[in-house]
Amino acid sequence: MIVLGSNSEIAQAFVEKTLSASDQFSKIYLFTSNKETTEKFAKHLEVKYVQQSVIIELDLLQPIDYTTFDEIDSDLLFCATGYLGEGTEEGLYDNKNTEKIIDINYAKLIPVLNFFASKMERQRSGTMIVLSSVAGERGRQSNFIYGSAKAGLTAYLSGLRNYMFGKRVHVLTIKPGFMDTKMTEGLPLNPKLTSTPKQTAEGIYKAFKKGKNVAYVLPIWGVIMMVIRNIPEFIFKKLKF
Ligand SMILES: NC(=O)c1ccc[n+]([C@@H]2O[C@H](COP(=O)([O-])OP(=O)(O)OC[C@H]3O[C@@H](n4cnc5c(N)ncnc54)[C@H](OP(=O)(O)O)[C@@H]3O)[C@@H](O)[C@H]2O)c1
Question: For residues 134 and 216, what is the distance between their CA atoms, to the nearest angstrom?
């Protein structure tokens, strides 16, 4: 199993859920931009579930040497990589912040996903589970740089799923609403619309096992986004959210 963004609580909860439900995986590759914080989790997995957990440094903001990933293959890839950044007016006009959001959520992430997609295509099997966001469905004033990068990611995943059809490779796009993680720390989230990492992992696992193409974590977000998508633009542009 390959995990991108291994320090995400969602990634760790999903790995725990998957490994406790199946003994199919003997080796796990934990990609991370922060090796030290991943070590405890890697050890925990070796004690409880797998023969070997390999930590691999991957900082999307640094040049990537793909040859170091040549030997890495798996039937399952889970990607929780993402960066919210500053959605405030200050953040919006800070080019460093803008570039970082676009790079981590889209521009530098797609080549990595493509690299592993090509391996799955060659081995003619595999599932890629990637976390995008409801934020990618319609740009809103509070986070539209992040939202636009997620929109690009969602479009990429849709095209990849279409391309892989008939090649035994499946792509599952997850579009979470609010999740209670370090990314949203300090934000005033409505608890009824917010899922915990454990709930999120359960929801993703269910969608994975059912072979779904696209899944919202909490079903209510499917309804909310249907409404949001259908608000006429002349009204939408006046809303503050
Ligand atoms: N939290 C929410 O409400 C929410 C809502 C909708 C969608 N999402 C999406 O869900 C996914 C998981 O989110 P989360 O809430 O678990 O956020 P998180 O805790 O911030 O996890 C995101 C992970 O992305 C990886 N990452 C960040 N910068 C990186 C870089 N420069 N290079 C490589 N990896 C980098 C980090 O993993 P390492 O430290 O291991 O490198 C980080 O732990 C993300 O894609 C996020 O955009 C979150």
Answer: 8
